[in-house]
Specification:
Structural class: mainly alpha
Membrane topology: Multi-pass membrane protein
Largest sheet: none
Distance between the termini: 41 Å
Low-confidence stretches: none
Number of strands: 0
Number of domains: 1
InterPro entries: AmpG_permease/AT-1 (IPR004752), MFS (IPR011701), MFS_dom (IPR020846), MFS_trans_sf (IPR036259)
Helix content: over 70%
Radius of gyration: 22 Å
GO molecular function: transmembrane transporter activity
CATH architecture: Up-down Bundle
Subcellular location: Membrane
Protein name: AmpG family muropeptide MFS transporter
Length: 447
C-alpha cells in the first residue's frame, strides 16, 4: 500500500486527529454523558426537594456538597498528564475509566432508602457522581486540547457545551417526569442506564493512527504522543508553574472563579425562588428550565462558536458579560412583576442564552491559553477555580436569603459579571502565545 492510499484510508477510519466530523461527534457525545447525571443531581433533585418543602439551607447544602468534586479536578489532572497507557492514547484510557465510574455511581443513587429523609445519603451518592463526572471531564478536555486544531476550538466548544446543555435539560425534564410518575429510585435507575451506551463512543475510536483500540489489540504509541508526554513530576510542576504565573493565565483564572460564584448562585436559587417564592411546581420549573436551556444549547452549538471565530474571543466575552450585568441588575429592580410567569420565563431564557454563549467563549479562551504539554492540568486548574466559585455560590444561597430579600440577592449576583468584565480586558492572547512558544523551544529541553 503506497503512502497516499494509506493516508486516504486513515482519514476515514476512527482516528480523532484525522477526521473533523468524528471529533465534533465524539466530544459532543462525551459532553452529553456529563450532562445527564448533572441534570439530575444539580437540578431535578433540588427541584424535587423544594417541591417537598425542604428548606433553602438543606437544598443549598446538598448542591454545595455535590459541587465539591468539581473543584478537586486539579488533583487528578497531573495524574493524567503523568501516567497513561500511551499505546491507547494520552487521554483516551482515562476517558473510558471515568465513564465506567460515572455509570456505577449514577446507578448507586437510585438505591438510597427514603431519600427525602436521608439528605446525607443523597449528598454522599451525589458526591461520587460528581467525582467521576469531573474525572471524565478532565480527561475529555485534555484529549480535546490534544487533538482539536486551534482554528476548530471555538466551533468545537460550541458543539460540546451545547450538547451538554441539551443533555442536562433533557435529563431534567425526563427525570422529573419519571420521579413524579414512578418514584425516585425507579426514575433514577432508569435514567442511569442511558449513560451506559455512551461508553461505546470512546471504546470505538482512537486518538491517532497506529494506536491500540484495546489493551490486548495490536498497535503502539504515536511518536507525537511520546514527544508530548512528560515522564516526571518535576517537569510537570515546573511546566504548569511557568504557564500559570503568566499574567493572562492568572487573570482568566480569577475571572472564572468570580463567574463560578454567579453560576452557583443562579443555578441553586432558581428552583427555590420559583417553587417556594412564586408557587411553581417542580414540573413547571423543570419544563421551563429544559425549554430555555435546550434553546440556549441549540443556539450555542450552531452560533456561539461561529460568533467567537468571526468577532474574536475578547470582544464577544465583553459583550456577553455586559448583557448579563444588565439582565440580572434590571431583574433585581422589578419585583413588582415577578408574579408574571412570562417575565420569569423570559429572564431564565435570556440568562441561559447569555450563560451558554459566555461559557463557549471562556472555554475557547482557556484552551487557547493552554500549553499542550500540561494541557489537562492547566485547563483543569481554570475549571477547578470556576467550580470552586460555583460551590461557594451554591452554599451562599441559604445564608443570603436569610439575611436579605430576593431583590438584594440578585444585585449581589450582578457584581460577579461586572468584576469579570474588567478582568477580561487585561488578557493578552498574543503575548501569552509568544511566551508558550518560548517555553516549547527552550524550557523542556533545558530540564
Amino acid at each position: 500500500m503506497d503512502l497516499k492510499t494509506k493516508n486516504l484510508k486513515d482519514k476515514y477510519r476512527l482516528f480523532l486527529t484525522e477526521n473533523a466530523i468524528l471529533r465534533y461527534i465524539t466530544f459532543s457525545v462525551l459532553y452529553i454523558a456529563q450532562g445527564i447525571p448533572e441534570g439530575i443531581t444539580f437540578f431535578a433533585i433540588p427541584a424535587w426537594l423544594a417541591m417537598n418543602e425542604k428548606s433553602p439551607m438543606e437544598i443549598a447544602s446538598f448542591v454545595a456538597v455535590i459541587g465539591i468534586p468539581w473543584s478537586f479536578k486539579i488533583l487528578v489532572a497531573p495524574l493524567m498528564d503523568r501516567f497513561t497507557l500511551l499505546s491507547m492514547g494520552r487521554k483516551r484510557p482515562w476517558v473510558i475509566f471515568g465513564q465506567i465510574g460515572l455509570i456505577l455511581s449514577f446507578l448507586s443513587i437510585g438505591l438510597i432508602h427514603d431519600p427525602l429523609n436521608n439528605i446525607t445519603g443523597l449528598m454522599i451518592s451525589g458526591f461520587f457522581i460528581s467525582f467521576f463526572g469531573a474525572f471524565q471531564d478532565v480527561a475529555t478536555d485534555g484529549m480535546a486540547i490534544d487533538v482539536i486544531p486551534v482554528n476548530e476550538q471555538a466551533r468545537a466548544n460550541g458543539l460540546m457545551w451545547g450538547a451538554k446543555t441539551i443533555g442536562v435539560a433533557l435529563s431534567l425534564v425526563i427525570g422529573t417526569t419519571l420521579i413524579n410518575l414512578l418514584g425516585f429510585s425507579t426514575a433514577i435507575t432508569s435514567m442511569s442506564i442511558s449513560t451506559f451506551f455512551i461508553i461505546l463512543v470512546p471504546i470505538c475510536f482512537r486518538e491517532r493512527p497506529g494506536e491500540k483500540l484495546t489493551p490486548w489489540s495490536k498497535g503502539k504509541a504515536s511518536p507525537i504522543s511520546k514527544k508530548a508526554q512528560l515522564t516526571s513530576w518535576t517537569k510537570i510542576f515546573r511546566c504548569i508553574y511557568k504557564v500559570t504565573i503568566l499574567p493572562s493565565s492568572l487573570i482568566l483564572a480569577f475571572a472564572m472563579f468570580t463567574l463560578g460564584i454567579m453560576y452557583g448562585l443562579i443555578d441553586t436559587l432558581l428552583p427555590i425562588f420559583t417553587i417556594q417564592e412564586l408557587d411553581w411546581t417542580n414540573t413547571s420549573y423543570s419544563n421551563v428550565y429544559s425549554i430555555t436551556t435546550v434553546v440556549a444549547g441549540f443556539f450555542g452549538m450552531f452560533i456561539g462558536g461561529a460568533l467567537v471565530d468571526f468577532f474574536g474571543k475578547k470582544r464577544m466575552l465583553s459583550i456577553y458579560l455586559i448583557f448579563l450585568i444588565v439582565l440580572i441588575a434590571s431583574f433585581s429592580f422589578l419585583p413588582s412583576i415577578w408574579n408574571n410567569d412570562k417575565v420569569i420565563f423570559s429572564f431564565i431564557l435570556l440568562y441561559y442564552l447569555g450563560y451558554t454563549f459566555l461559557t463557549i467563549a471562556i472555554f475557547a479562551s482557556a484552551m487557547q491559553l493552554c500549553w499542550k504539554t500540561v494541557a489537562a492540568t492547566q485547563f483543569t486548574l481554570y475549571m477547578a477555580l470556576s467550580n470552586t466559585g460555583r460551590a461557594i455560590g451554591s452554599g451562599l444561597v441559604g445564608t443570603l436569603k436569610e439575611l436579605m430579600d430576593w431583590e438584594y440577592v440578585f444585585i449581589i449576583i450582578a457584581m460577579s459579571p461586572l468584576i469579570a468584565f474588567f478582568l477580561m480586558q487585561l488578557i493578552n492572547f498574543k503575548k501569552h502565545k509568544k511566551s508558550i512558544k518560548k517555553f516549547t523551544q527552550y524550557s523542556i529541553s533545558a530540564y
